[in-house]
Specification:
Layout: H1 2-5, E1 10-17, E2 19-25, E3 33-37, E4 40-43, H2 44-58, E5 64-71, E6 74-83, H3 88-97, H4 110-122, E7 129-134, E8 160-163, E9 170-171, E10 173-175, E11 181-184, H5 197-201, E12 220-221, H6 225-235, E13 238-241, H7 245-253, E14 259-266, H8 268-282, H9 288-310
Parallel strand pairs: 2-5, 2-7, 7-8, 8-13
Antiparallel strand pairs: 1-14, 3-4, 5-6, 9-12, 10-11
Helix pairs in contact: 2-3
């Protein structure tokens, strides 16, 4: 077995290959500090990056992961899905450098981004399931009559929407380009001016009066779980909260695999383990089986001696 193991033999096994396109919301509401890592308060985007690190570390080799970012109405691809084991360091490094300052607009149209995600994934060389991390917060708020209908969205069956944030919420901080806090977003910044719905829907609205003048004027951003669940139902996706890693991994395992293929699995470790067990078995002097065999043999010899004594010459009578 050891000799065979040296040749690193493999056996073909057919299994599912998963491919994920993980989209991270980098709009400014994701800077809201209402999540925790190891008991310490952190922003939603910092928490998203941490749970992504843990998720990717838990995925088996052969799984492919691509990363994308969302801002305004569009989702952009950082790179196509790549093997998590072969590119583990690169993926982790990319996560480290994802920042809200990469956003190309301050607006947030989460519903519109579903259409953008579908267009992006449709151009991938192979199928991939979308895992979308967002707080569902849209800014400025659109009127119901101007809300995008997603019932016609194709190929979204099996997507996973992951809610990030708390139900209590917190104020959205406003930073400079150098990441210095200058205040908090105001209620007025979230209101839609009359006649501005088409401009806001296109992501072209520029908000000016956006810093709250008092604590009471701060806009409190909460996890928009109701809207996230409604979107998931509308496009045939699944919704799960992002505050539980195991629940997230379980939901990802239920997603449709990209394909099934035969993959060679190395069995040299199995042969080496069996060889070690056999070697150990051979050098155990008082193995339970040997004890049992010895006891059985001794009992059999005693019975034979007893039978011979019952048939001794003195007890034999000749006719």
């Amino acid at each position: 077995m050891l000799a065979i193991a040296l040749f690193r033999p493999t056996v073909p096994v057919k299994h599912n290959i998963y491919s994920y396109f993980m989209v991270i919301d980098i709009t400014q509401s994701m800077n809201t500090v209402d999540m925790k890592i190891n008991g310490k308060p952190v922003s939603r985007i910092a928490y998203t990056k941490q749970i992504l690190r843990e998720t990717i570390s838990s995925l088996p080799c052969g799984t492919k992961v691509g990363l994308g970012m969302f801002s305004g109405v569009n989702v952009v691809t950082l790179y196509l899905p790549i093997d998590v084991c072969e590119n583990f360091s690169s993926i982790q490094d990319t996560l480290d450098h994802i920042d809200w300052r990469s956003a190309w607009t301050a607006d947030s149209r989460v519903r519109e981004s579903m259409l953008s995600s579908a267009r992006v994934v449709s151009n991938f060389p192979e199928p991939a399931q979308v895992v979308y991390f967002s707080d569902g917060e849209e800014a400025p708020k659109l009127h119901a009559f101007n809300t995008r209908d997603l019932s016609t969205l194709q190929n979204a069956d099996g997507w996973l929407l992951v809610g990030i944030g708390s139900m209590q919420g917190a104020a959205i901080p406003k930073f400079t380009e150098k990441n210095q806090l200058i205040g908090y977003w105001s209620h007025e910044s979230m209101q839609l001016a009359p006649g501005a719905a088409p401009i806001a829907a296109a992501g072209l609205l520029k908000r000016k009066r956006d810093v709250a003048e008092s604590v009471n004027d701060r806009y409190i951003a909460k996890l928009s779980e109701t809207s996230m669940m409604a979107m998931a139902k509308e496009i045939g996706a699944t919704y799960v909260r992002g505050d539980n890693l195991q629940a997230l991994l379980s939901a990802m395992r239920k997603q449709k695999p990209a394909r099934r293929e035969w993959t060679p699995i190395s069995i040299d470790w199995l042969l080496g383990t069996l060889a070690g067990l056999i070697l150990l078995f051979a050098y155990v002097p008082q193995h339970p089986l040997k004890k049992l065999k010895k006891r059985f043999s001794g009992k059999k010899q005693t019975q034979s001696s007893h039978q011979l004594s019952n048939h001794s010459p003195s007890s034999i009578t000749l006719d």
